[in-house]
Amino acid sequence: MMEYQKIFVSMICYITPLSVVLYVLLFHTLPTKVSAANYYVNFVAPVIVEKSKLSYGNSANWKYLRKKIFEVQGDRCLCCGKKSEQLHVDHIKPKSRYPHLEFMIDNLQVLCPECNMKKSNSHETDYRKTEHLVSLVREINNNKLLQRKYVYDFKVLEKLANKRFKAEMKNRSYMQVLPIV
Description:
By secondary structure, the chain is mainly alpha-helical.
């Protein structure tokens, strides 16, 4: 019985100071240094991300990517095919759940406002057609800035383009030619 009492007393001696430090850290120190308004927690993947200080649509990075994506994918909605004055550049994997993909050209597609609202940030639907993927791969191969700064995983994009191209060639009855990648 005496051994258990010694173990119990020694545990209390170690745990009590740790719980006090933890209490002070969680309820007094951190809330004054980190405001909840500047941070959000992504519960899908446990990542804490600081909200951007710049206006999203006005950054030079976004303007460059928006221009490039319209050059590659054209001026029609990839979902419904509608031509519109106000097309949106949509994130295939939503930036709310994948903030590291926010400025990656291989995560962008052109949608009309209606299709973009339907897709929302709850779906990860990729509406890009084979020719868009092949054009994007070619553009990235020819543009060193895109390669260095705006592509998350080029190998995955290249595999996706080849896979869709080969599947499309099987379904068509004309001569099969592989894309220049």
